[in-house]
Amino acid sequence: MISSYLKLALRLLARSPLMSLINVLGLAAGFTVFFVLWPYTRHELASEQFIRDYDRIVRFGIVWNQLNKNDEWSSDVMATSHPGVAHTIGSEFTEVESFTRVFYQQNFTRAGMPHGKDFTAAVINTTGEKVLFQGEHFAYADPNVFSFFGLPLVSGDPEQVLAEPGSLVVSEDFALRHFGHGSPIGRQLFIHDTVVFHITGVFKNLPANTHMKLEAVASDMLIRKKIDVTPFTAEAHTYFRLRTGTDRLALEKRLNGFNTQHWEPVVRESGYNTSRVKLSSYLQPLQDIPFSKFSGDHHFAKSRDTLRFLNVVPLIILAMAWINYVNLIMASHGKRIKELITRKNAGARPLDFIRQFALESLLINVIACLLAVVFIKLFRYPLQVYLHFYVPSPADIPVQTALVMTAMLVTGIFAPAAYAALVTLNRTPHALMTSVKWKNNETVLGKTLVVFQYTSAIVLVVYAFAVYRQLDAVLNSSMGIDRRDVVVIDAPANASRKDLDFFVRQCETFAGVEQLTTSTHITGDDAWSVVVFWKESDSRAFLAHSTGGVDAGFIPFYGIELVAGRNFSATGIGDSSAIIVSEAMVEFLGLSDAAQAVGKTLSVWTRRGEEKQDATIVGVIRSFQEKTLFRHVEADQDRDALGHSRIILTYGSALTGFQRHKISLRIPHKNLDSTLAGLETSYRELFPGKLFRWSFLEDHMNRHYSYEKVTRNQIIVFTVLAIFIACLGLLGAIDNKALQKQREVVIRKVYGASMVDVSGMLMLSTARHMTLSVVLGIPLAIYPVRQYLAKFAPGFSFGWWHYAIPVLILIVILLATVSSVLLNAARKNPVDVLRHN
């Protein structure tokens, strides 16, 4: 019996090769998307949940609250805190079971570490060769960090690997990259040839769904004598494991009382007006960290809303593929009506029909699944490289995710079969014959499925268009500076001022270098804040962003407009306590215009020590974007209404004490290769043993949007697949309709119907479905579009035409898909068609 059903199913596949191909390709595309995107989004939404006791671990942070110019409280949320706080809280609050601290590389300071955050590291590889590389994903941490998080080690004891000063634990990738397949245990790592670490362990590579991007972790025993120097170091990420049953919010409230008791005196002694500045604490659940970004965070913040949207996309696309399958099955009944009537009259039982349709569905779905597996194997590498999809092996898929995927597969096989069987069983042989004669008899369910399919495609197309347009506007934004042909060279941060100045003079001699300037930081770096006191406003304190020190060429080099006052002098004479501020700063100070700010005095916490230094405003510049264009609401209180940051420019190292080791050069593209080769030669002669690192400023600035670019690519790819499936469905439907109505078409042609008339007749129901889908789809797309746009700073609008354009594009694509079918239907010779009727 089964073999008979199988033979019939194979004959049906061969009878209509176009319909079979449409079914298989549509389902294969749907299964491919589902098998790739569903595990990925579930994995991302479960960020940090691989960590032991993740639901009891929180991160402690500080909120800097201050009164603004309108006497309204604003806040700056800091992900970091003073390192000593962990010991105090751990001993005074019984709700805390244990704690650990991590000092991530981006937060390194020369005051607390034997090196800065930019450093050159070296190892002696297995061949005895000294290999230099730029230090990345490095951190200091408490010795218990691996046991605290339950991070598995390949080599070493979690309790002992970081017990000694100078001990270092590296990742599997780090060990393989620098030491091959040999053991790295006992080998050394050098930083600037002065700081030596001994590798004592290897930890398993961390998964992608964590905010901790680590390749090397050193024991903080080496730096403990330095990190407790000031209450406002604020460079440690502090994690607490709470005891079972602890109320996090209640503990947070108690901690804020602790702040009032312990920190207000320190704040007052440091010169802050405690009536205008308050410190509060927060405890952030570990699993929420990857989806937020506060001051001191340097991971790419994921969007829960976007991931939830992407989590629905595979279900929508798979549903679209099944809708195509169901509609084409029902349409094909007209071709096999004699078979169905004969079997029904011969006494076929309901179970016989169910078995037949189930086997046909199983055959189609199995072929589609196998083809989907082939697609995944073929495109696994580009999926990982360009879309950042890590396709897990079956053994790595969580049980819950595997159960959902299995349930969806079973549903896809039996639901369409059950529907087709029920439609057949619920009709008498006479009704089945009538359904052939009245070809325009469409069920409500069939219409609903088609409208759902087109509506889903419209929502995806509108959302993809919004993401593409928004990110394109962000990437092409000037940020308020001239970044044309700018190359940035990172000189050694520990080089002497004399050597740096000599190298700068050498750079100026190259004919390919049109302009250059030096600074401690550049736009695109992780923003660096300074504490500023406004004496004329009751010693109001606030945070501002600084480049850490610039030269006199910085403003003209980047094309920044000087609104009032003057630039720094070329020699720097008289500018040791001079600052230039942005218009956003002037507005924040409550001054009426830029000229009024010139000559005002601010006190700046220099971070060279514990003293504040008075600085005089000598100029005001047009505001530009020092930070990214993301809108992180909790940490955006330092921006004006247009998203511009409050910026302070200082001269050289006068206030900050930091070297200007970022050298920005304007090099036309035609001179790029030869000029860079000459610069590298000069660099290596002056800084032997140091890496020559350079980057395009545009790439450096846009790296903050790499996660967004990947998300954009993901959405576009799956939107294209959704359109592909919708086109397949429409192609199959119109082809079936053209076949069913071919007699009516040729009769109309005999009576003078034009090609437009014929096309209109065949597309009438589709036009109705599409119109209803547009009415439903655009309102449904508005919410996810607005949620996405809300991630960015103000200044980007999205008008009604941005909803209309993608819909028109989709309609044009759909019409182009069926144009050949419509053309063939309209061109058929009436004699050839009617000859067989």
User: In percent, how much strand structure appears in the residues?
Assistant: 15-25%
- What is the straight-line distance between the termini? 36 Å
Low-confidence stretches: 436-441, 633-643
Q: Write down the overall geometry.
A: elongated
Count of domains: 4
State the secondary-structure class.
Answer: alpha+beta
Main sheet: strands, sense, barrel: 13 strands, mixed
Number of helices: 25
Helix content: 40-55%
| Mean of pLDDT | 81
Instruction: Give the number of DSSP strands.
Output: 24
Report the radius of gyration as a whole number of Å.
33 Å
GO molecular function, one term: transmembrane transporter activity
InterPro entries: ABC3_permease_C (IPR003838), MacB_PCD (IPR025857), Macrolide_Exporter_MacB (IPR050250)
Domain ABC3 transporter permease C-terminal: 312-419, 716-830
Membrane topology: Multi-pass membrane protein
What does this molecule look like?
The protein has four domains: 1-47 and 302-438, no CATH class; 116-222, no CATH class; 443-476 and 706-837, no CATH class; 486-705, no CATH class. The chain is elongated. Strands 1, 2, 3, 4, 5, 6, 7, 8, 9, 10, 11, 12 and 13 form a 13-stranded mixed beta sheet that branches. A six-stranded mixed beta barrel has the order 16-17-22-19-21-20. The protein is built from 25 helices and 24 strands. The longest helix has 35 residues, at 706-740. The two termini are 36 Å apart. It has 837 residues and is of the alpha+beta class. It is found in: Cell membrane. This is ABC transporter permease. Residues 312-419, 716-830 form the ABC3 transporter permease C-terminal domain. Pfam families: FtsX (PF02687), MacB_PCD (PF12704).
